[in-house]
Design brief:
Blueprint (H helix, E strand, L loop, with lengths): L1 H41 L3 E2 L5 E2 L26
Antiparallel strand pairs: 1-2
Length: 80
Amino acid sequence: MLKALLTIFLIGYFLYKLGGFLFRLFLGRTYKAAQERQYKQNNKGRTTKDGINIDHVPNQKGKRTGGNFTGGEYVDYEEL
């Protein structure tokens, strides 16, 4: 009886470890493939009609960014 329980426990433990290893292996391959697709998508850039590659387009004038914020309205603080 004890041998049977020990055998079942060892087989279950082995399958648990093997399943975790296979899951990490599959997940790692999927994660790496997704990273490569994202890298290719982000780094393909733009090409003009003349075949010139454009890697960066500067911000357009009139668009508000964090660097050109001049401030807001001043509000007094009163203690109660």
